[in-house]
Structures are given as C-alpha cells and as structure tokens.
Sequence to fold (311 residues):
Amino acid sequence: MAAREIGFFRIIGHGIDLDLVERTYQYAQYFFAQPDAFKRRYYIGLSTNHRGYVPFTEKGDYPDEVSRSYEAFDLGLDLPDDDPDYLAGNRLLGPNVWPDVAGFKQVVSSYYNQISVLGRLISTALETHLGLPPGTMTQHMSKPISQLRLLHYVRDQEIEDTSVNMGAHTDYECLTLLHTRNAGLQVMTAQDRWIDVPVDHSAYVVNIGDMLEAWTNGQLRSTPHRVLNLSPERFSMPYFVAANHDTMIQPFPQLLGQEPAGYKPFRAGAHLERMLVRDFPYLRDPRRGELSKNHPGIENPFEQRMNQSSK
Ligand SMILES: O=C(O)CCC(=O)C(=O)O
Ligand SMILES: [Fe+2]
Fold:
C-alpha cells in the first residue's frame, strides 16, 4: 500500500464539494490580492494562538529555500473566545482570525468543516487498515490542533523553475489532505529521489505526518516533500489532521509485536510548537517566553532520512 512504501497517496470519490473547493480558492486569491497593509491587519504574529496572515517575509529556517516566495493564511478549529484552553494561554487553540472580506468566513469555514470530516474518515479507514480497534486514533481527535493553510506561491522573476520555494520537510501531524491547483510539489521516494506529484483537481493528495509515523512505530512513513517554482503563481490548500494538544504520541501497543518502540513518547502540541518555532520567526521573539528559547538549530527527528541523503 502506498502509505507504507512512499507515505503519499491520492484519493478520489472523497465527497468534498469541488465547487466549494473552487470558491475557497477564489476567496484565498481575493484576500492575497489585497494591499500588504490590509493583509497585515491579520498578521499571525498579532494572534496568541497562531492564526492569521503569514507574509512573504515570515521566512523559516530552511537552508534549501533559496527562492522562497510564498504567503499563507492559517486557521484551525474555530473555538469561542471563552474557551478554557485559549484563556489559559494555549498557543494553538482558540478562535480564528477572520479578514474583513464579505463571505470569506462563511466559505472558508464550511471548507474547514468538510475537510475535517474527511480527515476523520481517512483516519478511521487507516485504523481498519492497521487492524486497530475503531477509535484508536480518532478518540484523540476530539479537540484537535488541526490546521488549514491557504497558500499562495509567487515565483520571483528571473528565477529558475527548478529552484526550491518551500524547503524540504515532513509534516508534523498525523495526515495531510492537500488540494492543489498547480504543479510544483515533489515527494521523496524510498530511494531518496525527488518525484513530481501530478495535479488533478478532482483528487486529494494525502500524506502521512510525524505523529502517525510514531503511532504506527514506523509502519507508515512521514515523507519528505518540497515545492519547486514550477508555476509562476501557485495556489494550494493543505489541511493537517492532528491529534489533541495534550495527546501523548507513542507507538500503539497493538503495532509493536516483538519489535521495540522506535519512538520516544512526545506530546502532539509540544512537537508542533517546537517545529513552528523553526518555521515562524515571530515565535522566536523573546517576549514569547519559553517557546523562543528553542531556537536556533531546531531539528525534526522525523526528517533524518532527508538530512542523510543528497538533494
Ligand atoms: O503547497 C503544497 O503543495 C505543499 C505545502 C506543504 O507541504 C505544507 O504546507 O506543508
Ligand atoms: Fe508539507
């Protein structure tokens, strides 16, 4: 099965309304076309729970990102502003930031709702595939730190189309459900070769992330991928299916058999927060306290394979 060998597969017949996908892109496109001053009113660094606009300048720590040029809009489970975790200062849970664009919230949140249902469905299917009792994974997804990203890549002029825009990484969560409009995504094969992922508007690209690799004791692999500047402009929408903030991720005992656990237990939220410090300079601000102390040289243990091989 593709999830085991390569960690990426595509699904069709997923039940997501393709019109809604199109309308979500239209709102993303409209928002990104606004002046910088407008977009910066929703700057992610103004939020305490990692929501909002990510400008081109918010560049993470990736040596291979020689031609990085993308902006994003990040959102998650839209909790009320009296949510106890939010009030307690949780860095990933709380209300979304919504731009003052008529219809944006309605369309994007209805996309979030549909895609999160699909995320649950695929998680349930994977439980069956792995021979796990129903709910083994999904019971840990009652208040997940799952995020939706609206992404807009722009290739700088005079740049080669083989240059790297989004640097090689694994995704930090359980699964990613990606819809993309344009070419550019590449995936690392088991033989450490980069291959292009074809674009198909009716399909979702699904990949395994770090949390699921650990849960399955490496049976499913969190696969490195990157985005090249193949298109002058590119839109995509990854949805990251995660566990709850405080879920302790460690190999499921049913999957261990005779093998020892190859992964040390870690909290879902702690892993994500640590990796976000690598990706978001705003989180390295000393005023953010403990979080900022993680920097520099943050490495993701799930990316070892990538670091060992040449590009
Ligand atoms: O834009 C894409 O196709 C992939 C994006 C991605 O890998 C990510 O945001 O983690
Ligand atoms: Fe990714």
